[in-house]
Amino acid sequence: MGGDWELSRSFDSASGEVRWERFGDPAAPPVVLLHGTPFSSYVWRGVARALAVRHQVYVWDMPGYGTAVKFEGQDVSLAAQGRVFAELLEHWGLAEPAVVAHDFGGAVALRAHLLHGARYGRLALVDPVALAPWGSAFFRLVGAHAQVFEQLPANLHQALVREYIASASSPGLHPSVLERLVEPWLGEQGAPAFYRQIAQADQRFTDEIQGRYGTLALPVLVCWGQDDTWIPVAKAQELVELIPGAGLVRIPGAGHLVQEDAPAELTAALVEFLD
């Protein structure tokens, strides 16, 4: 179940160390995959390896997520991640890669493009954080009281994180996958980092760019899990109507974590779009 997924390379960003990896032929067209919250590049493992047959695929764990560094006072906001992504593309020397971004990563990719001059050949957005309002009732509750939640005993914190992540899937996650996604948020560094990233998730970071979606002048595909309970599928049509020429693929039987719920269907849609 992807137990051998490791990111062997690092980049020192303004928000701390980023972990990243590259797959496929270095001469092939580049594709960059962005994860969302509270996930990591691990959710892209199957899609990344499939795309690497015909593309050079880059994956990364954002600062504060997955295997990347986590520390007190770290800026892991959407504003910071957008700047880091623009830095990382320059570090990789990628002029106009294709970009595929999930959830929070969608806002990161959009901010890097619209505010920081990052250029993409094409952009696929998978159940993205892009339109107000966003954030579940639970997400807003934790964000408003992060310091209280940080005081939970370790066993209750672990149960909370497990149930929260599990709710991103419609059919349910394999136990080993769920444990892999929960693990980065445990322990002395992981637990505070979980609440830190929620506390810094401010809707103003998408409000700043939402009015600019009509200026996107590149091929855009929006993919959405039909059974997404985190961000309703109705948002898919709303987003497509704001982006000139954008395509839309709804994926039946998939919740918010489409990469786990329907990896074959998502990969097929991405392969067609990227080719």
List keywords for this structure.
globular, 8 strands, alpha/beta, Rossmann fold
Overall description:
- With 275 residues, the chain is of the alpha/beta class.
- The chain has a single domain (9-135, 202-274), classed as Rossmann fold (3-Layer(aba) Sandwich).
- Helices cover 41% and strands 16% of the residues.
- It has 12 helices and 8 strands.
- The chain has helices at 45-51, 78-92, 104-116, 137-144, 146-149, 154-166, 175-182, 187-199, 204-210, 234-242, 258-261, 263-274; strands at 9-13, 16-23, 30-34, 56-61, 98-102, 122-126, 220-225, 247-251.
- An 8-stranded mixed beta sheet has the order 1-2-4-3-5-6-7-8, with helices on both faces.
- Helix 1 (45-51) links the parallel strand 3 (30-34) and strand 4.
- Helix 1 runs parallel beside helix 12 (263-274), helix 4 (137-144) packs across helix 8 (187-199) and helix 6 (154-166) packs across helix 7.
- The longest helix has 15 residues, at 78-92.
- The protein is globular, with a radius of gyration of 17 Å.
